[in-house]
Amino acid sequence: MNWCSWIRNALTAGLVLSIFLLWGCASSEIYNSGAVPPVDSSEYEDVLEKFTRHDRQYSGFYQTYEVKGTLLNSEVNRLILQNKGFYHQWDAEKARKEREKTIQEMSSESSFFFSFFTPERDHNDLNKGTSIWKVYLEVNGVRYDGRVVKRNDKLADLVTVYHYHNRWSTPYKVYFKIPMTAVEQASSKIVFTSSLGTTTFEFPSIK
Fold first, then answer.
1. Does one domain contain both 122 and 154?
2. What Cα–Cα distance (Å) separates residue 123 from each residue in 26, 65, 171, 195?
3. Do 148 and 192 fall into the same domain?
4. Are residues 70 and 27 part of one domain?
5. What is the CATH number of the domain that holds 111?
6. How many other β-carbons are positioned within 10 Å of the β-carbon of residue 136?
7. Separation CA 187–CA 82 (nearest Å)
8. How does pLDDT run across 150-205, given as a tens digit for each residue?
9. Residue 82 — φ and ψ, nearest 5°?
10. pLDDT > 70: what percent of the chain?
11. Smallest Cα–Cα separation from 52: which of 67, 38, 42, 37?
12. Domains identified in the chain, total number
Protein backbone atom coordinates (compact mmCIF):
# COMPACT_ATOMS: atom_id res chain seq x y z
CA MET A 1 0.00 0.00 0.00
CA ASN A 2 1.44 3.40 -0.96
CA TRP A 3 1.40 6.46 1.27
CA CYS A 4 -1.47 8.09 -0.63
CA SER A 5 -3.74 5.06 -0.15
CA TRP A 6 -2.83 4.83 3.54
CA ILE A 7 -3.62 8.52 4.11
CA ARG A 8 -6.90 8.23 2.18
CA ASN A 9 -8.00 5.21 4.26
CA ALA A 10 -7.06 6.96 7.50
CA LEU A 11 -9.07 10.04 6.55
CA THR A 12 -12.07 7.86 5.62
CA ALA A 13 -11.91 6.02 8.95
CA GLY A 14 -11.68 9.32 10.80
CA LEU A 15 -14.68 10.70 8.94
CA VAL A 16 -16.78 7.60 9.75
CA LEU A 17 -15.82 7.83 13.43
CA SER A 18 -16.74 11.52 13.51
CA ILE A 19 -20.16 10.78 12.00
CA PHE A 20 -20.86 8.11 14.64
CA LEU A 21 -19.82 10.47 17.44
CA LEU A 22 -21.98 13.29 16.10
CA TRP A 23 -24.94 10.91 15.66
CA GLY A 24 -24.56 9.74 19.24
CA CYS A 25 -24.57 13.33 20.52
CA ALA A 26 -27.56 14.22 18.37
CA SER A 27 -29.45 11.13 19.57
CA SER A 28 -28.77 12.10 23.18
CA GLU A 29 -30.05 15.61 22.56
CA ILE A 30 -33.21 14.28 20.89
CA TYR A 31 -33.82 11.80 23.71
CA ASN A 32 -33.65 14.58 26.28
CA SER A 33 -35.46 17.22 24.26
CA GLY A 34 -38.96 16.54 25.65
CA ALA A 35 -40.80 18.95 27.93
CA VAL A 36 -41.31 16.35 30.67
CA PRO A 37 -38.42 15.85 33.12
CA PRO A 38 -37.48 12.38 34.41
CA VAL A 39 -39.35 11.19 37.46
CA ASP A 40 -37.44 10.80 40.71
CA SER A 41 -37.01 7.02 40.93
CA SER A 42 -37.09 6.92 44.74
CA GLU A 43 -40.29 8.94 44.92
CA TYR A 44 -41.85 6.82 42.18
CA GLU A 45 -41.08 3.55 43.95
CA ASP A 46 -42.24 4.89 47.33
CA VAL A 47 -45.57 6.20 46.06
CA LEU A 48 -46.41 3.11 44.01
CA GLU A 49 -45.48 0.85 46.91
CA LYS A 50 -47.73 2.89 49.20
CA PHE A 51 -50.78 2.28 47.00
CA THR A 52 -49.94 -1.22 45.73
CA ARG A 53 -51.31 -4.41 47.29
CA HIS A 54 -50.44 -8.07 46.79
CA ASP A 55 -52.11 -11.39 47.59
CA ARG A 56 -51.35 -15.01 46.74
CA GLN A 57 -53.84 -17.84 47.38
CA TYR A 58 -53.28 -21.59 47.65
CA SER A 59 -55.32 -24.77 47.86
CA GLY A 60 -52.99 -26.97 49.88
CA PHE A 61 -49.65 -26.75 48.08
CA TYR A 62 -51.29 -25.71 44.81
CA GLN A 63 -51.34 -22.02 43.93
CA THR A 64 -54.80 -21.04 42.75
CA TYR A 65 -54.13 -17.40 41.88
CA GLU A 66 -52.01 -14.32 42.54
CA VAL A 67 -53.04 -10.70 42.18
CA LYS A 68 -51.02 -7.53 42.60
CA GLY A 69 -52.33 -4.08 41.80
CA THR A 70 -52.16 -0.34 42.27
CA LEU A 71 -54.87 2.18 43.11
CA LEU A 72 -54.67 4.88 40.43
CA ASN A 73 -55.35 7.93 42.57
CA SER A 74 -54.19 11.48 41.84
CA GLU A 75 -50.78 10.99 43.45
CA VAL A 76 -50.04 7.81 41.51
CA ASN A 77 -51.40 9.14 38.21
CA ARG A 78 -49.26 12.27 38.47
CA LEU A 79 -46.08 10.20 38.62
CA ILE A 80 -47.23 7.70 35.99
CA LEU A 81 -47.94 10.54 33.56
CA GLN A 82 -44.54 12.07 34.24
CA ASN A 83 -42.87 8.68 33.75
CA LYS A 84 -44.68 8.08 30.44
CA GLY A 85 -44.11 11.66 29.32
CA PHE A 86 -40.37 11.40 29.80
CA TYR A 87 -39.91 8.04 28.08
CA HIS A 88 -42.18 8.97 25.16
CA GLN A 89 -40.71 12.50 24.96
CA TRP A 90 -44.00 14.38 25.12
CA ASP A 91 -43.90 18.06 24.28
CA ALA A 92 -45.67 20.58 26.53
CA GLU A 93 -48.94 20.40 24.57
CA LYS A 94 -49.08 16.59 24.66
CA ALA A 95 -48.30 16.57 28.39
CA ARG A 96 -51.06 19.11 29.04
CA LYS A 97 -53.64 17.13 27.06
CA GLU A 98 -52.78 13.86 28.80
CA ARG A 99 -52.98 15.54 32.20
CA GLU A 100 -56.37 17.09 31.41
CA LYS A 101 -57.63 13.75 30.08
CA THR A 102 -56.62 11.98 33.29
CA ILE A 103 -58.19 14.66 35.50
CA GLN A 104 -61.41 14.41 33.50
CA GLU A 105 -61.49 10.62 33.87
CA MET A 106 -60.87 10.81 37.63
CA SER A 107 -63.73 13.29 38.01
CA SER A 108 -66.25 10.62 36.98
CA GLU A 109 -64.69 7.27 37.89
CA SER A 110 -61.97 5.50 39.84
CA SER A 111 -59.60 2.87 38.52
CA PHE A 112 -57.23 0.17 39.69
CA PHE A 113 -54.53 -1.57 37.65
CA PHE A 114 -53.81 -5.18 38.52
CA SER A 115 -51.54 -7.97 37.35
CA PHE A 116 -53.23 -11.37 37.63
CA PHE A 117 -51.84 -14.90 37.48
CA THR A 118 -53.59 -18.27 37.68
CA PRO A 119 -52.36 -21.62 36.34
CA GLU A 120 -55.86 -22.37 35.05
CA ARG A 121 -56.55 -20.53 31.81
CA ASP A 122 -60.34 -20.78 32.24
CA HIS A 123 -60.07 -18.78 35.47
CA ASN A 124 -58.15 -15.93 33.85
CA ASP A 125 -61.06 -14.11 32.23
CA LEU A 126 -61.97 -11.31 34.61
CA ASN A 127 -62.97 -9.07 31.70
CA LYS A 128 -65.76 -11.41 30.57
CA GLY A 129 -69.36 -11.41 31.75
CA THR A 130 -69.20 -15.19 32.23
CA SER A 131 -66.14 -14.99 34.51
CA ILE A 132 -66.19 -16.71 37.89
CA TRP A 133 -64.76 -13.47 39.28
CA LYS A 134 -66.50 -10.39 40.60
CA VAL A 135 -64.61 -7.23 41.49
CA TYR A 136 -66.08 -4.39 43.50
CA LEU A 137 -65.05 -1.28 45.41
CA GLU A 138 -66.50 -0.38 48.78
CA VAL A 139 -66.45 3.22 50.04
CA ASN A 140 -68.34 4.42 53.13
CA GLY A 141 -70.34 1.20 53.16
CA VAL A 142 -71.48 1.60 49.54
CA ARG A 143 -70.50 -1.05 47.00
CA TYR A 144 -69.57 -0.20 43.39
CA ASP A 145 -69.36 -2.99 40.84
CA GLY A 146 -66.23 -2.98 38.71
CA ARG A 147 -65.93 -3.00 34.94
CA VAL A 148 -62.80 -5.01 34.12
CA VAL A 149 -60.85 -4.36 30.92
CA LYS A 150 -57.95 -6.46 29.70
CA ARG A 151 -54.94 -4.33 28.78
CA ASN A 152 -53.19 -4.85 25.44
CA ASP A 153 -50.14 -2.69 26.10
CA LYS A 154 -46.69 -3.94 25.17
CA LEU A 155 -44.99 -5.79 28.03
CA ALA A 156 -42.02 -3.39 28.05
CA ASP A 157 -44.33 -0.37 28.43
CA LEU A 158 -46.28 -1.97 31.28
CA VAL A 159 -43.16 -3.02 33.17
CA THR A 160 -41.78 0.51 32.87
CA VAL A 161 -44.84 1.78 34.74
CA TYR A 162 -45.69 -1.20 36.96
CA HIS A 163 -42.39 -2.82 37.83
CA TYR A 164 -44.03 -5.84 39.47
CA HIS A 165 -45.81 -6.97 36.29
CA ASN A 166 -44.28 -9.87 34.34
CA ARG A 167 -44.82 -11.94 31.20
CA TRP A 168 -46.56 -14.77 33.10
CA SER A 169 -49.32 -12.51 34.41
CA THR A 170 -52.25 -10.86 32.63
CA PRO A 171 -52.68 -7.07 32.91
CA TYR A 172 -56.13 -5.70 33.70
CA LYS A 173 -57.68 -2.40 34.67
CA VAL A 174 -60.94 -2.16 36.60
CA TYR A 175 -63.16 0.93 36.61
CA PHE A 176 -65.72 1.99 39.24
CA LYS A 177 -68.44 4.60 38.79
CA ILE A 178 -67.37 6.89 41.62
CA PRO A 179 -65.08 9.94 41.35
CA MET A 180 -61.54 9.34 42.57
CA THR A 181 -61.83 12.40 44.84
CA ALA A 182 -64.56 10.58 46.80
CA VAL A 183 -62.36 7.50 47.13
CA GLU A 184 -59.39 9.57 48.31
CA GLN A 185 -61.46 11.22 51.05
CA ALA A 186 -62.43 7.97 52.77
CA SER A 187 -61.10 4.55 53.66
CA SER A 188 -61.88 2.09 50.88
CA LYS A 189 -61.38 -1.51 49.88
CA ILE A 190 -61.27 -3.41 46.61
CA VAL A 191 -62.54 -6.98 46.70
CA PHE A 192 -61.86 -9.84 44.26
CA THR A 193 -64.18 -12.74 44.92
CA SER A 194 -64.83 -16.11 43.26
CA SER A 195 -65.21 -19.82 44.03
CA LEU A 196 -61.40 -19.95 44.21
CA GLY A 197 -61.25 -17.51 47.10
CA THR A 198 -61.55 -13.87 48.10
CA THR A 199 -58.92 -11.14 48.19
CA THR A 200 -59.47 -7.79 49.88
CA PHE A 201 -57.19 -4.79 49.41
CA GLU A 202 -57.68 -1.91 51.86
CA PHE A 203 -56.63 1.70 51.30
CA PRO A 204 -56.64 4.57 53.80
CA SER A 205 -57.95 8.07 53.18
CA ILE A 206 -55.29 10.41 51.80
CA LYS A 207 -57.15 13.73 52.14
1. yes
2. 49, 9, 14, 10
3. yes
4. no
5. 2.60.40.10
6. 15
7. 27
8. 999 999 999 999 999 999 999 999 999 999 999 999 999 999 999 999 999 999 99
9. -65, -40
10. 84
11. 67
12. 2
| Whether 11 and 48 share a structural domain | no
**Residue 10 predicted with pLDDT over 60:** no
Three-class secondary structure assignment of the chain? CCHHHHHHHHHHHHHHHHHHHHHHHHHHHHHCCCCCCCCCHHHHHHHHHHCEEEEEEEECCEEEEEEEEEECCHHHHHHHHHHHHHHCCCCHHHHHHHHHHHHHHHCCCEEEEEEEECCCHHHCCCCCCCCCCEEEEEECCEEEECEEEECCCCHHHHHHHCCCCCCCCEEEEEEECCCHHHHHCCCEEEEEEECCEEEEEEECCCC
Instruction: Determine contact, residues 57/197, Cβ cutoff 8 Å.
Output: yes
How many CB atoms lie under 10 A from the CB of residue 20? 10
Q: Is the pLDDT of residue 6 over 60?
A: no
Residue 123 sits in which domain range?
Answer: 36-203
pLDDT tens for each residue of 42-79: 999 999 999 999 999 999 999 999 999 999 999 999 99
| 2 plus 96 within the same structural domain | no
Q: Based on the number of CB atoms within 10 Å of its own CB, is 189 exposed (0-12), middle (13-18) or buried (19 or more)?
A: middle
* 119 strand-pairing partners: none
Do residues 22 and 78 both lie within one domain?
no
| Same-domain status, 8 and 41 | no
Q: Are residues 6 and 88 in the same domain?
A: no
